[in-house]
Amino acid sequence: MTTIEFFEKPGCSTNTKQVASLRAAGCEVAPRSLLTYPWTADSLLAFLAPHPSASWFNRAAPRVKSGEIVPEVLSRDEALAALLAEPLLIRRPLIRIGDTHLLGFDPAAIAASLGRSPDGFLGTPPGEGCSHKPDTPPCGSGGPG
């Protein structure tokens, strides 16, 4: 069975639900911390390069939400430098299945990478974004959630 490497923010309830949905579908999942993984420009670009640089960012990150960082005005090099300096800014999850690298949680792309039919693969999977509980710090804060 192919192992899905799942780069997440530990404690993020949405990422936890995504991992659970993959496991419920019979997938072997190896969670990795997006925040502590030793990213290099090349390793991160393997996930990001096919996408517009503005889509690389976690829109729930405090510096993005506040407008301090505006992904749409950054060059690709500036965006990559910001993400390498502050992994909390990276849109998550990042998913590696063999040689396939995915940005975000896309059930159809995950199914295709596993050679499975997307029809009913994950039922109604959790989407992307932050679904933290009201009494916990928001996902962008670096705390649980």
Description:
The chain folds into two domains: 1-34 and 92-128, Glutaredoxin (3-Layer(aba) Sandwich), CATH 3.40.30; 38-89, no CATH class. The chain has 145 residues and is of the alpha+beta class. The protein is globular and about 40 Å long. The chain contains five helices and four strands; from the N terminus they run E-H-E-H-H-H-E-E-H. A four-stranded mixed beta sheet has the order 2-1-3-4.
Can you tag this structure with a few keywords?
globular; four-stranded mixed beta sheet; 5 helices; Glutaredoxin; alpha+beta; 2 domains; about 140 residues
Task: Give the gist of this structure.
The chain has 145 residues and is of the alpha+beta class.
Question: Layout of helices and strands, plus pairs?
Answer:
Elements: E1 3-8, H1 13-24, E2 28-33, H2 41-48, H3 62-65, H4 76-85, E3 94-97, E4 100-103, H5 107-113
Parallel strand pairs: 1-2
Antiparallel strand pairs: 1-3, 3-4
How many independent structural domains? Answer: 2
- How would you characterize the largest beta sheet? 4 strands, mixed
Beta percentage is 5-15%
- pLDDT average, as an integer? 87
Order of helices and strands: EHEHHHEEH
Radius of gyration: 15 Å
Q: Kindly provide the name of the CATH class of the largest domain.
A: Alpha Beta
- Contiguous runs where pLDDT drops below 50 for at least 5 residues: 131-145
Helix content: 25-40%
Shape designation: globular
Distance between the termini: 30 Å
The main sheet orders its strands as 2-1-3-4
CATH architecture of the largest domain: 3-Layer(aba) Sandwich
Q: Number of helical runs?
A: 5
Find the count of extended strands (DSSP E, 2+ residues).
Answer: 4
Q: Do you know the CATH topology of the largest domain?
A: Glutaredoxin
Structural class: alpha+beta
